[in-house]
Write a structure and sequence with these properties.
alpha+beta; about 475 residues; about 40% helix; 3-stranded antiparallel β-sheet; Creatine Amidinohydrolase
């Protein structure tokens, strides 16, 4: 939790941007695993965290723009809860710590909202992503649950995106704490990448690091030697010598900010020549993307230039052919690079995506490109100082996709399908860093996880004893 001045300033800024009405910010509630009293680990809603900073379940924040007043509706714990949870500060004590002077029990929230509705006051809320919040808003506002998201406030979404996109100094400090944990996770995974070790063991140990240093992982860990599957959460295989292990993993700091790194590691510690060739293309694409990242450029253009680096490298290996620019324009590169270059990162690893990706990653000037692969680009808009983004190009050899394109002769003018047959068991390579856009360019957040071939091989070798 930051200082109360931080939260008070954020709410004041939001009031100024919004102009009039009530802003409704429901906190998350407990989510049952298999019955109501046995719950998943609680994680507060990120919008509530940003504006109110409190981490207990069952809270509801209201920013009253017209009366320049902020509210937290929540119940104080009773004796039974104290027995199980221990003594807790009162709601009013917690509220004062984040600069909120007005509190009331939850039973008064409905009456408060009813009075506002009778006064024809405008209600602002962002699209709920949990069923509990959706049903709560539905009940309070008298809107059918299936239609509640249609009434979400575009003005509030846009104001939240504007504010949360610009990370201030205290947020950057938290992200770098998460990056420090992520660094330790990835170096540990590299050292453990030895033949015979089960993926599950490595995943468990690095997730343990995330829990022991912060609040756990910032998203479900992707760790696999079957890296052609982009989001592979199956950790059931023993590592085999000569294969590649992709680790896409990050940590959540104690202040709830995320890190998100990806590295590709040779099992046993040595890249084959074929693996080196592909790895060097991805590394060149990663470094090129970083060099292009600066205020004023669109991340969509960075993505496309990175795709050109990948297409050019694959052409040199004989896997692609023809004019590189024409190949990228036609989307031929997406056979190998079928996802976007990166995304916003902050309180969420895909920051603010609950608001709707079109509002976070795009604007009136820059719109998504409706083409396979590039359509998955989450961030396309012009970069500004204070943005924290990821940079994660990759090359994958996906048998089902290759088979489909060859059968249909998709982009056949740019693909050497015959040569691709020898890569069908290759897997995939992805390399990802976390980047802060500065006033003049960009910088990598935290110590860069080993990425050069010799560095990676050296770290893997150090874990053999």
């Amino acid at each position: 939790m930051f200082t109360k001045e931080t939260y008070s300033k954020r709410r004041a800024t939001l009031r100024q941007k919004m102009g009039t009405g009530l802003i409704l910010i429901p906190g998350n509630q407990e989510s049952p695993m298999n019955y109501s009293e046995n719950t998943y680990h609680f994680r507060q809603d990120s919008t509530f965290l940003y504006f109110f900073g409190l981490e207990l379940p069952g809270m509801f924040g209201v920013i009253d723009i017209d009366n320049n007043r902020d509210w937290i509706f929540a119940n104080d714990v009773d004796l039974e809860e104290i027995i199980w949870m221990g003594p807790q500060k009162s709601v009013s004590e917690q509220a004062i710590a984040v600069g909120v002077e007005s509190t009331a029990p939850m039973k008064k929230l409905g009456l408060f909202i009813d009075e506002a509705i009778k006064g024809a006051r405008k209600m602002h809320f962002t699209p709920p992503y949990r069923a509990e919040s959706l049903l709560q808003l539905s009940s309070l506002l008298g809107i059918r649950a299936l239609k509640i998201s249609q009434y979400a406030s575009l003005a509030l979404i846009q104001s939240c995106v504007t504010m949360r996109s610009m990370k201030d100094a205290v947020e950057i400090t938290e992200i770098e704490r998460a990056c420090a944990i992520g660094y330790q996770m990835h170096v540990t995974a590299m050292r453990m990448a030895q033949p015979g070790i089960f993926e599950q063991r490595i995943a468990g140990i690095i997730e343990g690091i995330a829990l022991s240093k912060g609040r756990g992982t910032s998203f479900p860990t992707i760790l696999t030697q079957n890296g052609e599957t982009l989001h592979n959460h199956n950790h059931s295989f023993a590592l085999e010598s000569g294969r590649l292990m992709i680790v896409d993993a990050g940590a959540e700091s104690n202040g709830h900010y995320a890190s998100d790194f990806t590295r590709t590691i040779p099992v046993g510690g040595k890249f084959s020549q074929k693996q080196r060739d592909i790895y060097n293309i991805v590394l060149a694409a990663n470094n090129m993307a970083f060099s292009l990242t600066k205020p004023g450029v669109t991340y969509q253009s960075v993505h496309l230039q990175t795709a050109a680096v990948i297409a050019s490298g694959l052409k040199e290996l004989g896997l692609m052919k023809g004019d590189v620019d024409e190949a990228v324009a036609s989307g031929a590169h997406a056979l190998f690079f079928p996802h976007g270059l990166g995304h916003m990162m902050g309180l969420d690893v895909h920051d603010m995506e609950d608001y709707g990706q079109i509002h976070v990653g795009y604007d009136k000037e820059i719109r998504p490109i409706d083409q396979f692969g590039t359509a998955y680009l989450r961030l396309g808009r012009r970069l500004e100082p204070g943005f924290v983004i990821t940079n994660e190009p990759g090359i994958y050899f996906i048998p089902a996709l290759i088979e489909k394109w060859e059968k249909e002769q998709t982009n056949a003018a740019f693909i050497n399908f015959d040569k691709l047959k020898s890569y069908l068991g290759f897997g995939g390579i992805r390399l990802e860093d976390d980047i802060l856009v500065t006033e003049t360019g960009a910088r990598i957040l935290g110590n860069r996880v080993p990425i050069d071939i010799e560095e990676v091989e050296g770290v893997v070798a150090s874990g053999k004893n």
